Amino acid sequence: MQETRPAWLSSPPLYSAFQIPGSRKAQTNISVESAAAEQLRGPEVRRYPGAGAGARAGRWRPGSSECGCPAGGSSYPSGLQLHLPFRWDFSHRETIPPDSHFLPSRKTVEPLEYYRRFLKENCRPDGRELGEFRTTTVNVGSIGTADGSSLVKLGNTTVICGIKAEFGAPPTDAPDKGYIVPNVDLSPLCSWRFRSGPPGEEAQVASQFIADVIENSQIIQKEDLCISPGKLAWVLYCDLICLNHDGNILDACTFALLAALKNVQLPEVNINEETALAEVNLKKKSYLNIRTHPVATSFAVFDDTLLIVDPTEEEEHLATGTLTVVMDEEGKLCCLHKPGGSGLTGAKLQDCMSRAVTRHKEVKKLMDEVFKSMKPK
């Protein structure tokens, strides 16, 4: 049976496009006639372009509002006139691997299988290798009203830390020590998963993790915060607010806390023996004595065997387990956090610790460069 074609299909196309067979790069061939027509943009009357083989290669759509054609039409007279500027649309050219497992639609239907196809090729959907970290940036002194502050970004994950120093009475069981009080805030601002109100489970876990890092790493000797034994001590309130949660929040919080503590300057305080009041000299300030530099490195476990570093939020959700290792500059283990999930062999755990040592050197180098640039020349 002979196919009946609309009359407008026989019209010569105003634009022609082609793709070289076997070439991965699409090329376009625009004739002199089309170049002249391209200069006639505006409300001039245009001749309707035909949809020959060249037009089909350029993905021209008869129902597109850009060309002013009525949507849903199946046949047009060859002399149809257009009264809207004609724009040739090449935006729908997509390079999709022939393997259907890489189609974006599969990510919605079967996200785990979608990730597995990438992991088998030793890469991830965002283009990183399995052992590659996202871009890390740090900015200190971001909050002018705080005694110390920092802003850290791990890819899209963004955490800001502000530290406020206040006076307080030392604890009765340790009269020569001060306080460091961390608090992690995961508000609806950073992710749709969180709600307003009291801290959720994930926020409480993160706050306790930061408290454990402070205690185990001895980043600051609490004796250094004591002003007068049994009478007065410094209380450092460390508020860590997540602005954007895209996974690996523990690494970002640890880095932000360390950078903010290094930025803290406390004024000189003396106790007047006659009045028993504190005298504060705001003109003379000093930095805290940072004794260690703990750096956290997080891993996600896929299929109980495969390890990836610096997981995104989606990767954390699909993983069978996560692990966070905190190391200091001497290669000592400060803290290890594993909230359930699949187990790890001794060899895998040792591999994680080795990678954490390497990551510590990178972060420490970045932080040294930041604070070196802040010193007056």
TrEMBL record:
Keyword Acetylation: yes
Family the UniProt entry places it in: Belongs to the RNase PH family.
InterPro entries registered for this protein in UniProt: ExoRNase_PH_dom1, ExoRNase_PH_dom2, ExoRNase_PH_dom2_sf, Exosome_comp_Rrp42_subfam, PNPase/RNase_PH_dom_sf, Ribosomal_Su5_D2-typ_SF, Rrp43
Record keyword Acetylation present: yes
Pfam families: RNase_PH, RNase_PH_C
Molecular-function annotations in GO: RNA binding
Gene3D superfamilies: GHMP Kinase, N-terminal domain
SUPFAM superfamilies: Ribonuclease PH domain 2-like, Ribosomal protein S5 domain 2-like
Keywords: Acetylation, Cytoplasm, Exosome, Nucleus, RNA-binding, rRNA processing
Protein's recorded name: Exosome complex component RRP43
Localization terms from the record: Cytoplasm; Nucleus, Nucleolus
PANTHER family: EXOSOME COMPLEX COMPONENT RRP43, EXOSOME COMPLEX EXONUCLEASE RIBOSOMAL RNA PROCESSING PROTEIN
GO cellular component labels: cytoplasm; exosome (RNase complex); nucleolus
Chain ranges of the Exoribonuclease phosphorolytic domain: 132-267, 294-357
GO biological processes: RNA catabolic process; rRNA processing
